[in-house]
Amino acid sequence: MLSLRTRHRLRGELWIVPLLCVLASIALSLITVAIDRAFGDRLVPTAITGKPDAVSTILSTIASAMVTLTTLVLTITTVAVQLAMGQFSPRIVRALLQDRASQLAYGLFASTFTFAILALRELDVAGGGTVPGLTVLVAYLLMLASIVTLFVYMHHSGNSLRAAGLIDLVGDHLHEQIDRLYADDDPAPAPRDVVVCPGAGSVVDLDRRALVAAARDAGCVLELVPMMGDFVPAGAPLFRIHGTAAGPDHAQLAGYVVLAAERTHGDDPAYGFRKLVDIAERSIAQPFTDPTTAVMVIHRLHDGLRQLATRTFPTGRHHDDHGDVRLIERVLGWDGYVRLAFDELRLAGAASPQIPRRIFAALQDLKTVAPPERHPPLDRQVELLTAAVEHRFDGPDRDAVLAPDVQGVGSGADLSTRPRPIEEHSANSAADGRTGNGARVTRRF
Known about the structure:
Largest sheet: 5 strands, mixed
Shape: extended
Strand content: 5-15%
Distance between the termini: 85 Å
Radius of gyration: 33 Å
Mean pLDDT: 82
Order of helices and strands: HHHHHHHHEEHEEEHEHHEEHHHHH
């Protein structure tokens, strides 16, 4: 019986599972060779495995390819772990090394190499030309399994090294430890008018048609508690049921909501704004200080808001065929999108001259296309950004930063070429006495 300290150490070692896989491949090779010898190497015909010369070449290629593949995968994994340490936390390494799926992939690659080498030993190329058919066939199958595992492993490792993947990896371990160490003796049952979330995750999609049909059949109204993209903890309210005592099946309703580790673009346009703002904030945060990248992001935020400025936003109320409201969900409106696009950039980038100039230019353009009832959120941004700039800059610098400029730096930064309103031009021309002489007044916007 292994001691507690030994078992704890073995669970944290990367090499244990691959070593066990290699030992299993040796045992498998001994078994298949024994079976082949029992049948006189005629169990599997050479029409399937190939002639001895071809089999020797194939097994040699498999062995050399597996060595190269295993070395490459381990090297990439080492580099990825180092990047994860620097990007997220050095304490994430243990969780990555204990990932059982990765350990099994390494073990399969090493096992395929070992099995191919042992199968080569049983070939009789110079003598009677016998081929241990079952052994060679198993080597071929291990090669195919290694190819499939390679693609699965790359997908798995890529997801594991994402921010959401690493967070979920640690979060899942934490959840398991809580369930193991803290007993939930008598959990309080959820009210009949509340559908709780069966697992944790972000809402990325929902079957609205099925939800409307379920609410219609039950004669109730469903209220989706989280918004699209919200994270919902396990056991938290997912739906509230209004208008009926019995209500529809809770598990069925929960099955109509798709939860994922992170938000997606499928039905969540606000996530695109969120990621663009994240890029901009990282570009202007110390020690990066790359405001030009932030200006490029504001270009796309400006474009997105311009597309939304004149469009009708959904109400979040879904009706059945008779026009009765059956599903209510919270949706983001115009004010929410404007705040999402500019609030954090305004706070983080007010000290960088390029950022306010570009935001002022975006707000100025959006007011030309947005209906009057959508101007207050834009005016709010102008007022707050102006106050932030005036707090940080004085004199000519302040006037330069307050100048709208699509490029961040350019014509808008040159106050001498800054366009003036039509009324200002007309007043200046009249004062100069030139409009009465038939001279044409130049109108600049």
